[in-house]
Amino acid sequence: MTITTIALDADDTLWHNESIFHLTQQQYVELLQDYGDADHMKARLLEVEIKNLSLYGYGVKSFTLSMIETAINLTRGAVPAKIIAQILDLGRAMLEHPVEPLPGVAETLETLKDGYKLVMVTKGDLMNQEQKLARSGLGEHFHAIEIVSEKDANTYRRVVARQGVRPEATVMIGNSMKSDVLPALEAGLWGIHIPYHITWAHEHAEPPSDSPRFAKLETIAEVPGWLRQRG
Amino acid sequence: MTITTIALDADDTLWHNESIFHLTQQQYVELLQDYGDADHMKARLLEVEIKNLSLYGYGVKSFTLSMIETAINLTRGAVPAKIIAQILDLGRAMLEHPVEPLPGVAETLETLKDGYKLVMVTKGDLMNQEQKLARSGLGEHFHAIEIVSEKDANTYRRVVARQGVRPEATVMIGNSMKSDVLPALEAGLWGIHIPYHITWAHEHAEPPSDSPRFAKLETIAEVPGWLRQRG
To answer: Which of B71, B81, B126 sits opposite A126 (nearest CB)?
Structure first.
């Protein structure tokens, strides 16, 4: 069946994101350096983030709340409020961070948008993701924007249903094997994995062992060629 | 033109919400009672909330971050981390709070769902609103759920376009004159105002001076009668 619809993840697929979390985490452990070892702090922060996911969801506000909670726990309540104010500033800086599209993204979307229906599928803060899309200058290329609270197989089933397309006519492209590729394959879509140079520990997953609808590419610029090859 | 589609706000229209914010705010000023006067604190909190809206958006996580920021500012950095931990607990309790539908809501939706397309239109945290809808038991009545970052006239234009209906065939029902009624009227929909007993200061607005598409009702149970009267 011909592919008519291309669903694209946003963070770390269209623009840099994890690198900003990474940098912020570095600044965070420096802020708290009097209170313990950096690796230990990062491990505790990750635990708190994962514990909070089912209540807070994804995104910068959740991450900021988890940074504050971790700082209080790690210091057994001794962290001064002035450091917590600086953690709030770290979160704010992330929300205001310039959006930097990855190499080849703008050109590739420009090439694809006339022949395919392009749909952005992303999780995270609703308002922040909308603002990032606006700041990225990529918004006009998309036929639809889907900001979702979780990416599982049912999410992808709902997305193709809402777009009125068949799963086997849709390819999902993203940097996360766990959120973008595996659940899309499970829902009957095609899945293309384009790794980003940093992956959040919570998003790690093994590639599918044997799927004819799976491909791994190096950059988004290879997508038009892949679509041509499929015919 | 016949009304075919009913759009409904969620917080304080389908279920209690502002009362929970109100109660939390009360607990917040008690937590901080050694640092100042309650009314002054509430006024400062509101200022911080409104300042943060364009960056954080609506919802409990935003409110929690604003409560922390206000506590640090009000105390000039003297608030102990243990109180900030209690503020985090207040936010968590809000997110986990049972969802209590307002009187008449379940029965009215049950009556309307066979004759009309029902669409929930709400702002706030994506994940929290989805969880509240699931916990409310009202989810099955809705044809579509639209969680949006802001409610202005363009939001309502997009909602009716996505649903494939005409604005003049759609009525928006909600407790906020500012977010539910006025922008819906501006977009060409009908608007019904059903006040809740508490309104967040930021949502106050005057009713429209003269609109044939506006109505004010006391409870949602009056909606089927209003629709019949229109014929």
So the answer is: B126
